[in-house]
# Entry
Amino acid sequence: MPKVSPEFAAGRKTEIIDACKKLFQTMNFRQITLKEIGKETSFSRPSIYNYFHTKEEIFLALFEREYALWTADLDTLLRQHDSMTKPELADGLARSLEKRGDLLKLLSKNLYDMEENSRLETLTSFKTEFKNSMNAVHALLDKFCPEMDEQEKQDFLYMFFPFVYGIYPYTAVTEKQKDAMERAGMHYSYQSVHEICYKFLARLLGCAERHS
# Structure
């Protein structure tokens, strides 16, 4: 690969990630290929290999960017408040996830395959941003829940983050899925991302009274 400036390389990577994100709005993970991603960029498909070796690496980079955006929102929540009650904290965390539809959608996909088919340096970069999100939530607990000890904070993190993986399928149900549930005799009641997150977080924080 010819030597290029870091700014040029970053711009190319951003264009590739943006192309992947655009396709992800209307296509599923299996349908999206490097060829399809290449069609959405201003350069040839072979050039993609100068920046990403597999489709999974591109998705992981998109994942990383979405985690970075969420972390920025969490940091803003931390800075903008001197104090928060537990219901306010649950509401703030729920609203931060409500804004991250692409992150929630990505979390519902097979992250294991994305990680398995990515180079170590790409995976490490992703894990670093994931860690930053966990640290941001931990900082919120440090500031607004000082009565929690370290074990309680760790328990919170290792219940909250796995929970986030399952939000999307419950808040983005297709008509076909609704029809199947009706035929199966299942009752489906729509809940928004905010509603489902707030109820969970309120229970996790021990403040499960109804939020208006």
The mean pLDDT is 94. DSSP finds twelve helices and no strands in the chain. The domain at 52-205 is CATH 1.10.357.10 (Tetracycline Repressor; domain 2). The chain has one domain: 52-205.
